[in-house]
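WARN no homologs supplied; continuing
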Amino acid sequence: MSASLLGAARACLEASDPDRKVALTRDAAAAFARGALPVAAGDAPPGPIRMPGRPERPRLVHPRELPRRGFGTREGRAAFVHAIAHIELNAIDLAWDAVYRFRGLPDAFYADWAAIADDEARHFVLLRDRLRALGHDYGDFDAHNGLWEMCEKTAHDGLARMALVPRVLEARGLDVTPGMIVKLRALDDHETADILEVILAEEVAHVAAGSRWFRWYCAQRGIAPEPRFRELLAEYARAVLHGPFNLDARAAAGFSAEELDALRAAALGA
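OK structure emitted
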C-alpha cells in the first residue's frame, strides 16, 4: 500500500493488468475511506500526463473503425458489453488522474473521486463477468481512446477537466443508457439490463460530482459557470456532443436549465 492517496492514485494509473488496477483501486479507496491513507505525504508534484497502464488488448482504433453491431445476436451484445466495460476501465483512470493531478483542493474533492474510482472498478467487474458469461473477455473487441484523449487535453486545468470529462463525455451515458436498457429487456437480456440499471443510478452521482467541483472552481476564480461552460463546449467538445439529452437525469446531476440549453445549442451546431 502506498503511503498516501496521491501515491496510490499513481500506482492505480500505472497498473496495466485490469485485475490489478481493480484490486489496487478497491484497496486504496477503502483505506482512504477509513482514514488510513492521508491525501499527501511529501509527494512530488504531478508528472506530465501520459497514457495510463493498459493491457496489450484491446487494440485501440479510431471510433470510425469500430464496426456497428446490433443487439440481436449474442456476438453483438458481447461487443456492446465490451464497449461499456472499456468505458468503465477508462473511468477508473479518469477518477484517479483527477486525484493525482489536481493538488491543494478540499479533502472532499479527493473523497469524491476516490469513491468514484471504486464505483467504476466495481462496474468494470460486473461487466467483465457478464462478458465472460457471453463467451468473451475484455480485449476480444477493438476499442477507442476518446475518454483519455479529453483527459489529456484538460490536464492543465481542473476547471476544464470537471466541466468536460464528467459533464460531457461521461454524462453521455445518462443520455443513452435508458434506451439501451429498454432494448435489452425486449430481448430478454435482463442480466445485462440489470447491470446497466446499477451503473445508470450511480453515474448520476458521478456526473453530479463533476458539476459540484466545476462550480467550486468557478467560485474560487470569480467566474460565472454558465458562460464558462458554453465557452468550454465550443473550444473542446463540439465534435463529441450528440443529442438527444436525458434532461431529467442531467438536471439531477447538477446541470442548470441554462447549461442544458447550451448543450442542445452546441449539439445542433456541431
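The radius of gyration is 18 Å.
OK
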